[in-house]
């Protein structure tokens, strides 16, 4: 499974040559398009503390809130399920989506190989059957990509950075 950059703010998630969906990062919202449906992850207030998860029909299906004002984790509630979004930096930047039992479901993290930074993106196989797995994965990438750019610096080396594994 890998994220492929198509333009400045557009990425495609591909698994074994099969397009799972397209992520578009915008100023106040991010969209995830999959199977002809568009899901939104949209800023709800100007403090950047609450985001809404909006279904293709416009219904608010859930939200994401920071656990604390200066915290490094958030709680995502989606159709009465709770997930936890954790930002870590041990030893390099990573973002994890955890379930209620604190098990990692999705992770994007920086690693090094032969002195160069690269991204690893993984998802638990059993989680792939969740109808919202790839939408939640797109939220992880929404946050991880700017961190990866910041940590790696050189935009020209981004092609190497975007290589991801499942």
Order of helices and strands: EEEEEEEEEEEEHH
| Main sheet overview | 12 strands, antiparallel
Shape: globular
Strand count: 12
The proportion of residues in beta strands is over 45%
Strand order of the largest sheet: 1-2-3-4-5-6-7-8-9-10-11-12
Which secondary-structure class do the elements indicate? mainly beta
Description:
The chain has helices at 133-152, 158-161; strands at residues 2-7, 10-15, 18-25, 29-34, 37-43, 50-54, 60-66, 73-78, 81-89, 93-98, 104-113, 116-123. Strands 1-2-3-4-5-6-7-8-9-10-11-12 form a twelve-stranded antiparallel sheet. A hairpin with a 6-residue loop joins strand 7 (60-66) and strand 8. The N and C termini lie close together (5 Å). The protein is mainly β.
What is the fold's blueprint, element by element?
Blueprint: E1 2-7, E2 10-15, E3 18-25, E4 29-34, E5 37-43, E6 50-54, E7 60-66, E8 73-78, E9 81-89, E10 93-98, E11 104-113, E12 116-123, H1 133-152, H2 158-161
Antiparallel strand pairs: 1-2, 2-3, 3-4, 4-5, 5-6, 6-7, 7-8, 8-9, 9-10, 10-11, 11-12
Structure keywords:
single chain, 166 residues, mainly beta, twelve-stranded antiparallel beta sheet, disordered C terminus
